[in-house]
Amino acid sequence: xxxxxxxxxxxxxxxxxxxxxxxxxxxxxxxxxxxxxxxxxxxxxxxxxxxxxxxxxxxxxxxxxxxxxxxxxxxxxxxxxxxxxxxxxxxxxxxxxxxxxxxxxxxxxxxxxxxxxxxxxxxxxxxxxxxxxxxxxxxxxxxxxxxxxxxxxxxxxxxxxxxxxxxxxxxxxxxxxxxxxxxxxxxxxxxxxxxxxxxxxxxxxxxxxxxxxxxxxxxxxxxxxxxxxxxxxxxxxxxxxxxxxxxxxxxxxxxxxxxxxxxxxxxxxxxxxxxxxxxxxxxxxxxxxxxxxxxxxxxxxxxxxxxxxxxxxxxxxxxxxxxxxxxxxxxxxxxxxxxxxxxxxxxxxxxxxxxxxxxxxxxxxxxxxxxxxxx
Length: 375
Hints:
Layout: H1 2-20, E1 22-30, E2 37-42, E3 51-57, E4 63-70, E5 74-79, E6 85-90, E7 95-99, E8 113-115, H2 120-151, H3 155-183, H4 189-196, H5 203-211, H6 215-218, H7 221-235, E9 246-248, E10 254-256, E11 264-270, H8 275-291, E12 296-302, H9 307-317, E13 322-325, H10 329-332, H11 334-338, E14 346-350, E15 356-359, H12 363-374
């Protein structure tokens, strides 16, 4: 009887796991595509380049088939090495494509991929990716304009640059509002936050965007996940106590954040492979040299998973402050999860009382803040 009961439980668990999986069935015809390879790449985790999920070689008659399972609904893209990509939503619905690369353009990478039956969710993923591309360019523009504004020598020039900044920021808001108006009831809406907002935008913007989702979307698996992440971000707002953590130093000892209480502490999330992180290091080093004797401490939390590369970067660059790492990479590091690190470099300033003073400052903004704290 006990054996039969346990067998029943196992069968139920297996059945439940199978039921939770989402089948993808993508077929189609690629004109003149015989012998070429198509990839199916998942956009899970906000990875805009996608992680390889499946691939298929187009048959001699131009047909192709991609079939398999994923563990949940998710955004993805069907892509070719030379002929762009088309964003889609894997929700269990069969998809049929006609591909004609004569229409390919780097300005419109999805043009060759004609989906037989468009749905709101597929269009939402396309709009999400379009925003990412547009915002990537906008952020470069804003960075340059911000630098120009600080260097402007006349009031007239300052006003002109400030007007340009407002115009670019308004374009961003308009595009976000357009997405919400059209797709606030799409299962894709929470993925928009993950891909486009968690890395760059304020908590106020993220919360406001999420609040405009329908209740149904908020109750989806991804909707609940994003809701939980927003709740965690609110706990990381300036004025909140910095979450405690303990990690291993290069020499195998343990270092806890509480060990540095009574100092102003920079928690710097970085990695040896992160170019922007290494570009920022001279600025961080200058601050450490200037204020360490007056009580400034830095904890470098590495997102590396290779100990030799981590230690090599520390020695090569002369980073003489505290260093810790789980050596599990960014996606599996418990401290990265605790501090909602989805992109690096990311930095928190923690006061002597253990409360967060500021976060995500770099360059001149970071120097000005540290100078202010030590005046």
